[in-house]
Amino acid sequence: MQEWARELGFSQIGVAGVDLSAAEPGLAAWLEQGFHGDMHYMASHGMKRARPAELVPGTVSVITARMDYLPRDTARDAPGGWQAAELSRLQRPHEGIVSVYARGRDYHKVLRARLQKLSDRIAEAIGPFGHRVFTDSAPVLEAELAARSGQGWRGKHTLVLNREAGSMFFLGEIYVDIALPQSEPVTPHCGSCSACIDICPTQAIVAPHRVDARRCISYLTIEHAGPIPVELRPLMGNRIYGCDDCQLICPWNKFAQVSRLPDFDERKGLSGQQLAHLFAWDEATFLRMTEGGPIRRIGHERWLRNVAVALGNALRATGDGALRAALQSRAEDASALVREHVGWALDAA
Q: Environment class of residue 169 by beta-carbon count within 10 Å: exposed (0-12), middle (13-18) or buried (19+)?
């Protein structure tokens, strides 16, 4: 099965059991503290997220898979390595930063299709069996299942870390109604390191293995639909979709692997672009430039909201009149959400 998976572009597969009861208290506490923010779907399914057999009746095993996603043209030989090259974008305030994973094709589509192909290969070998594939698309404790099945250990930023691949990979699952031998979990190797906690721009990692999504820039720029809290806007810098800081600083990501698929290659027009240029996109341009990618899901209005905040931060840092002109071009935007963030950006500078 590992060979089939590699042929389909996966880096590793494992098998986990369905008894995740030990994870339920932590999930309940996280929800009770409101750390999920506006992600109401996290709470609406209750403990079903930790109970695979309730989500898909008949499930007795979970096949987990991971797929590396670093673009093939990643600057691995850059001074200080690819992580330093990515972090250096923060020193270019006019440039909009899109999270590495979002620069290519939508991973949901890539993994879901290939997980289904893997399921078909298994069925050819053993006969028809009950299954359902998932990729960040249902109430599934992905990181917990990945850790239990030997894909890696949970880092202090809550992401899964692998000694040979860091954390730059996507996760997917196949819930199956057949009993399979479970993979052995691996031991954690974070030790006393707190680099991910220390670097978080908004201090969203409130304790080791505990993230308050309401403060996380990835949540604020992607999941959160309304106004971004005023006190967090200056901390966002020039990050306009997602945030990779906790991964970029992690020592294990010097081992991150480049994807073997062209799907995650950087699309022209998304990476290294000037904020003023991105802010000028009308909705038709936004839809065209993000077609088939994950960014499209936030919509044009939230895109402009995010870029407006970054423009305000860049204007404050540089005093560049061109940035002010870009913001003023949307001071009377049809969207109240956009107008509010443009107003803040102009006033804050």
A: buried
What pLDDT was estimated at residue 41? 67
d(CA 177, CA 166): 31
Name residues whose C-beta falls within 8 Å of residue 203's C-beta, 6 or more positions apart in sequence: 215
Residue range 316-330: average pLDDT? 97
* Stated pTM of the model: 0.94
Active-site positions read 136
Provide the pLDDT for residue 244: 98
Q: How far apart are CA 282 and CA 304, in angstroms?
A: 9
Percentage of the chain beyond pLDDT 70 is 97
> Exposure pattern of 85-100 as b/e (b: 16+ CB <10 Å)?
bbbebeeebbbbbbbb
